[in-house]
Amino acid sequence: MTEFSITILGSGAATPTLGRHCSAQVVNIGCFKMLVDCGEGTQNQIRAFHQKMQAFSTIFISHLHGDHWFGLPGLLSSMHLCGRTEPVTVFAPKGIKELLERIFEVSGSHLGYELTVNEIAPDGPEVIFENGKCKVTAFPLLHSVPTYGFLFEEQPPLLNLRKDVRAHYGLSDTDCRRVKLGYDVEGADGTVIPNALLTKPRKLPRSYAYCCDTAYSEQLLDTITGATMLCIESTFDKSLESLASLRQHCTAAQAAQLARQAGVKQLLLTHFSARYKDLDLLLDEARAIFPDTFPANDGETYTLPPNDQEAR
Ligand SMILES: [Zn+2]
Ligand SMILES: [Zn+2]
Fold it and tell me: What is the CATH number of the domain that holds 150?
C-alpha cells in the first residue's frame, strides 16, 4: 500500500511554546512530500524531525495569520542559500505575493530558483493541484481572515487483473495497461470485454482533510464527509466556547462533532492554546463524542489507515 502519512512540525496556536511550535505539517503521499502551513521556526522543526528542506516543492498556506506563515520567507531563503535549483510552488490566500515580494526586496534577498506563487480564493471546493500521486482541493473555512482548508486525496491505485484473463482473452501488453487503468478492451473477434470481467475491485483511495483555523461550520461537511482522517483545530475547551466563537476557532467538542457528522475514520486535533499544559481535558471532551481522536504532537507521524471499502 502507498505510504500516506502526516508528520507534525508544529501543533500550537498563536505563539510558539517549548514543545509546541506554530502550525506546520508534512503530508507524504507515496514519497511526494508537501508542506502545509509554515509557522515561525518551521525550518528548525524540519531539521529536528529529520525531514529534508529541499524535498518540498509544493507548499500550501491556509491563511495569513502569522502563526501559519511567518516561517515561509526564511524557509524559501534558506532553500536558496543551500543551493536549490528546483522550482517551488506556493498556494496561499491573496496578499502573499505582495508580502513575499516586499520582504525579499527590502531585505535584499535573491532566490536562485523559480518561485511560483498561486493566490487562491475559492468560493467552494476547488481542485488547485494534481499530479500522479495526489489531488488537492481547497475549500473555504470560517475564520476572521480568508482561510482555506485542504483535502489531500491519493490517486486510485492501478486495478489488478483477474487470474488467467490475459491468456483467456489473448490480451496484449498494451491491452493489459489499459485494463489496469480502468478501460474496457476489444477481444480478437471485435467484441468489447467489460473492465469488470477482467479486474478485481480495489480499495477506495484515502483522503486527509486539514481544517485550520476555523469556527464550527456545517458547511465544511460538503468537502470533508467521508475523509479517512480529519485534522481540525481545537484551540479551546468547552468552557471557553463563547471565546472560541468570538475568535472564530473551534473547541475540542466542536471538532469531534464535525468528525462524527462527517463520518471520518480518525480525528487528529491540533492548534492547541498555550494555556493547556497537558491535553487531557481537550481529549476527554473530544473522545466522549468521537472515540478515534488523537492529539497532534510535534515530531510525531500519523499514518492513514487503509480504506475498508472497495470499488472499481
Ligand atoms: Zn492559528
Ligand atoms: Zn488564524
Answer: 3.60.15.10
